[in-house]
């Protein structure tokens, strides 16, 4: 059985080892930059918290993502997650990038 099939089977069976490994990025076919960007997209989708945005933004930047790429993620998921999610995530992402949100919104 190919690796992806085995991992899907194990996730479907609620094998905690697969998700524990995935949380650490262990055994992932994704490079750290792609994984961090995917996690940012997920935070946007679920309405993540400010500390989570900070952590994943730092991870993405450390892995080589540019600030433009990070903002492009926000824009890129808008048609999937909806404008309200994107609008509410924008200030959290701005804070994570070290911007003065009050100055931006004035």
Number of helices: 8
Mean pLDDT: 88
Rough outline: elongated
Main sheet overview = none
Cα distance, first to last residue? Answer: 56 Å
Count of all domains: 2
Q: Unreliable segments (pLDDT under 50, ≥5 consecutive)?
A: none
The share of residues in helices is over 70%
Fraction in beta strands: under 5%
What is the tally of beta strands?
A: 0
Radius of gyration: 16 Å
The computed structural class is mainly alpha
| Helix/strand order | HHHHHHHH
Topology, pairings included?
Layout: H1 3-12, H2 16-23, H3 32-46, H4 50-62, H5 67-76, H6 78-81, H7 83-96, H8 101-105
Helix pairs in contact: 3-4, 3-7, 4-7
Your description of this structure?
The protein is mostly helical and 106 residues long. It has 2 domains: 1-29; 31-105, no CATH class. The protein has helices spanning 3-12, 16-23, 32-46, 50-62, 67-76, 78-81, 83-96, 101-105. The radius of gyration is 16 Å and the shape is elongated.
What is the gist of this entry?
With 106 residues, this protein is an all-alpha fold. The protein has helices at residues 3-12, 16-23, 32-46, 50-62, 67-76, 78-81, 83-96, 101-105.
List keywords for this structure.
106 residues; 2 domains; elongated
């Amino acid at each position: 059985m190919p690796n992806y099939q085995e991992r899907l089977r194990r996730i479907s069976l609620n094998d905690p080892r697969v998700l524990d490994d995935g949380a650490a990025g262990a055994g992932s076919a994704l490079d750290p930059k792609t994984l961090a960007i995917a996690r940012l997209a997920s935070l946007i989708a679920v309405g993540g918290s400010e500390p989570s945005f900070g952590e994943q933004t730092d991870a993405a930047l450390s892995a080589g993502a540019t600030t433009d790429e990070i903002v492009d993620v926000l824009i890129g998921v808008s048609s999937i997650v909806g404008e309200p999610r994107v609008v509410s995530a924008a200030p959290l992402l701005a804070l994570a990038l070290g911007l003065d949100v009050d100055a931006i919104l004035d």
